[in-house]
Amino acid sequence: MRKCLTGRRYLIVLDDVWNFKVNDQFVSLFPENNNCSRVLFTTRLVEVAKYNSSWFSKFDVRFLDKKESWELLRHKVFDETPCPHELEEAGKKIAENCEGIPLTIVTVADILSRSNDKTLEYWNMVAADKQNSVFVDAYDQMFEVLYPSYEYLPQHLKPCFLYMAVFPQNYEIPFYKLVKLWNTEGFLEMGFLETPEYATWSNLNQLYMNNVATVHKKSLNDITKTCGLHSPFWHLCNKEATKIKFFRGLNTLDHCLVQEDLKGQRRLCIRNNVLFGIKHAYDSIASVSTVRSLLCTGPYHQYPVPVCLEYLRLLRILDALTILFYEFPMQVTNLVRLRYLSLTFNGDIPDFISKLWNLQYLIVHRCMSIVESDGKSPYLPMEIWDMKELKHLHVMGSDLPDPNCEDSLLPNLSTLLDVSPQSCTKDVFERIPNLRKLGIRIESAPDNNDDDDEPLCCFDHISNLDNLETLKCATVNPRIMLSEVVARPPTPLHFLPSSLVTLSLSGFGFEWKEMSKISSLPNLRVLKLKRYAFRGPNWEVCHGEFPCLQYLLIEDTDLKNWTFRSRSYYLPRLESLVVRHCYKLEDIPQKFGSHLKKIELVDCNPLALDCVDLVKTTARYRARGVDLSVRYSWD
To answer: Which regions of 91-192 does DSSP assign to beta strands (E)?
Structure first.
């Protein structure tokens, strides 16, 4: 080949390359004739492109925007013939539903062009539903093209990829829900000292690099918040999962009546909770005795439906947050293999919950997002201390009871969320020594004017939690917001554990001088201050404070002047600064460290923007292109 190409101008295209060492195998065959000859290869794998980047220039192909999608669809359907005006609106919606993927657009366009029905009624019907036969046929045609993306995945990633399709089409999957479910299912291969969060992130990152999953939302400090699948891959996963008995999604009554698809399934995904209320569907679901996971992933259903738990004795996962239970389901007590239980229920958790001795995740939401409180939170049963396998406990509006014996210990509990200060006693914290994440909710009646500092006692013993990494404390109806004048200075902030990495405070009204107890934390990387977490017009940062802070959010406060004590550079590791709804803020310091990448201002005093503009134009940051985002609702 080299001999044939020598002295000639050529264009070589290698399409859909999977081999990492393409340059080692092929580059020597292509002579450099200095005549603008080119070698182009395409790949689905980011790592293949990176491996060969020393020989080839790398170009990432982006998704098409709405306009480009419509232009491609219109051209493929009508060629040079103008699109009938009455079809344009529906056509643009069809193109938008192709999610910017050229292969989907071309395939859908081919089906539409071959159809004899080009009426407005038909196009509106196609545009209204991604489950329309046109899209389903397109996904079926794309299956063979996309299947290698699944087939060539490393074996440990295949179940993770398929599992992302248990959720509805185009659903934005919360990262931390995926952590809990993948961990419970046993999909995560964790090395020594690795956490489930890290293992999940690693697996997701590999799926991104293989271009089979996508990130929907990231936090400003670049942490994945939600992820998901594009529709063609969602369809592929559902088809493959049904075939290999990995899971079966049930959307309609017809799905429930195909016994061949249900037989032997290990996981059922109920995407319409009303199915439990239909006898034929109920009986079909109850007959699948092999089910290990029952995942109710459809829209929230506000009316109770019967769930056939008594027939599914092998369940390890029951995810039923989208179903309202008037009474705690007694049948749960027979599910002794259960490791993950989530449901929506307003009553007290019964003491027989302790019979679930394998349970690792207990999540109970309340029907009402706001519940009036008399200041006393309902307690979980004392038997909760017998559940030694618990890792994650989140029962809205309930508290851990004070332990009553020496054996009361939850050695594996790493996450405790939505508890009141009554759970933050020395005795309780001593019995959960490995707690890594703590969420405290302080409720106070808006008309309470008593000088009662009891809610702030939650800080008294937090310093004893040596492994705590994430702390979120929020007050509901904070008294400090009732008046511009504080009757007396709030209780000083107690010292926090040095292990803290993420801290979020809301509604406390601490004086800014108390910040020294936070700024000295050696491992703190994320700090969020919301709803007058700190109060007062002046905040001065001293040299050496916040040595590792990467992300800082200041939201809704009366801060006016934020300054650094001297002209030295401060916050050396800060990457993202977010300031929201600080209407009095006039002065923002300009001497941040060299890692600053992004500044975001939302509805702040215009004087603050002048300061930020100076930061951006400073040579230190101009060379690195600091991203400045400013939004005003009054513009």
So the answer is: 173-174
